[in-house]
Amino acid sequence: MPISLNPEPRMTRHLVTHTRLFEHDPLVIVDVGARWGFNQEWKVFGDGLRVFCFEADKEECERLNASSSANVKYLPYALGGASGEAVLYHTRLSASTGLYRTNWQYFSRLLNRDNAIVEKEETVRLTTLAEALRLAGVPSIDFLKLDVEGAELDVIRGAGEYVDSPQLLGVLSEFRFHPEINGSPPFWQLDAHLQKLGCRLFDMHFSHQSRRVLPYGGLADYRLPNGERFFAYTVHGQIMDGDVLYFRDLLVPANSSIRAQAKPMQLLKMACLMELYELSDCAAEVIMEHRERLSSVVDCDRLLDLLTPPLGGQRLPYDQYMRAYFEPRGEVVKAAKQASTAAEGRGQGVIHSMEPLRCSPTSELLEELKKHSFYHCIDLGDGRETEGWAVARPVQQLVLRQLDRLSFEGKRVLDVGCRDGLFSFYAEKRNAAEVIAIDNSLSSGAVEVLIPYFRSRVRMHEMNLLDLTPDRFGRFDIINFPGVLYHLRYPFQALKILRDLLTPNGILVLETAILRIHEGTPLLYCPAPKESPYEKTSVTFFNPRGLRDTLASFGYRVEGCDYLYGINAFRLPYTNLRSRLVASGNQLQRWTPSLVRLLLQRYVIDRGVFVCRIDPTLIDPELEDYWNRIYEKVTYD
Ligand SMILES: C[S@@+](CC[C@H](N)C(=O)[O-])C[C@H]1O[C@@H](n2cnc3c(N)ncnc32)[C@H](O)[C@@H]1O
Questions:
Q1: CA neighbours within 13 Å on the CB side: how many for 277?
Q2: pTM over 0.85
Q3: What are the pLDDT digits (tens) for 107-126?
Q4: Which residue from 287, 462, 506, 521 has the fewest beta carbons nearer than 10 Å?
Q5: Is any atom of ligand 1 closer than 6 Å to the C-beta of 484?
Q6: Which atom of ligand 1 is nearest to the CA of 480?
């Protein structure tokens, strides 16, 4: 898993494009181990950036230099702790090439052992980073990135004045946990060295690698440039390696003299880098603590506003965010705590983190709920509910009936399009190990009131499902996906993204709007938004066959299916007139869709829930390559 990145560094973008702050004093970054190009996240600095990249592979440097802009240079040096000769081990997977030979006896136990296969040994001349930078005429650097297969600490040791200098703001480095991997210094040595330089750990991501005897599912479908599959990180297994991010923490005593002399530009560069790596809180602290020094150069209030994250899906200025963060939510949590203490006092014992409180929600809580609008009707523990949409209840019950049949115990669950969290809280209550919920428009009521009130561990994120990757949250045993597919403009892409997020035996619970026409033919009805049978965001209506065939082509085997209305008006579990009419409409529409359309001026829509399990045998590997990758052997019939 990579270090967290901020997809929207608004303050940095503002400083680069509006104030043009870095035009005359660019951010200088050194990237050691730059195969395939430097880190994309720095591109936000535009022409306010200078990157000096080091890569031992000369040809790779030539290739990269040929297409890089003037402010980026790839320098073909093998860097080490001291100058002299050394052996460079070229591995089958070029990215694993390095100065430390992997210990086959240890590493062959691991699923990804092929990474250690050495194809060539080359004697190379080592240079230190300090020598190389002096030769390139670089006086000082702001940030250092290292990814050199174990030689990271060696490179730092050879960086002399460049890392001792107070100018250095931070370091991003790869590391290994175990000395047995390739004999390189493990994490604790790297950490001790960086601590001595005044750097402190700000973020860490580490990766798991399975034993070969029983490998877990992979985190991604890893491929070599020629399309061949290779094995790498897995969802579980022993932790092996990772990445760490260090910054000079100016508020610790070890850095007090550096802090006293820090120039505004240095402080702003540090704040920008922190924002880039999802540390906007630390960036805000840098600005607050040095407000006086910075005010002559920038508008600190504006920067704080730009750093402020959304609250309950809303963007607030910094001051309002702080008030809203500490005041209303504090009240809710306080109310929840008071209520739970009262419940425990009555001898009800420990309340499960999700169990609604077994006493009336306080009047403060009810007041708080009134400030938000809800879609889901969620039980507050005393029979009272959030005021959601009653009409959506039957569909939710259709989904819940299927969920009731699944085991959630110890499972990782993803709730896609979670709205107010009805299904997320349900999964938590059923003892899921972890529940991640996403929605492209987060429910403020869920985030600010329900989660604190329930003391829930559900983690809700505002994001589009199209941005989900296994790197972001890992893989899931169960993905709940109700009420969203028909809203999507890219339904096929969504089904692929979710398939790639499931563990090998994972389950997708898909609920969507269904158009029951021409049931022998696989169809997708995609009306123009203004002609939608629902409202303008609903533009994707499969017929049952169309959905089943699509699911199968992605490797989903449908294990269970149920419709809300169905086609038999007399066998419905619901006996109300409306349900009977819709079922009759469904039936008629299967045979004469145009007549129904003519009579009603629109189609009749049913709802269907499909419980699907991943079955790799359904996937045609040739088609997978054809649709997703480069395909060499084309045989069109
Ligand atoms: C009809 S509601 C369904 C809510 C809940 N899943 C249920 O079935 O009760 C659809 C939800 O999907 C969300 N949504 C729509 N498109 C999305 C997308 N591309 N990524 C994430 N969420 C999306 C909407 O914001 C909304 O909250």
A1: 24
A2: no
A3: 999 999 988 889 899 999 99
A4: 521
A5: yes
A6: 6
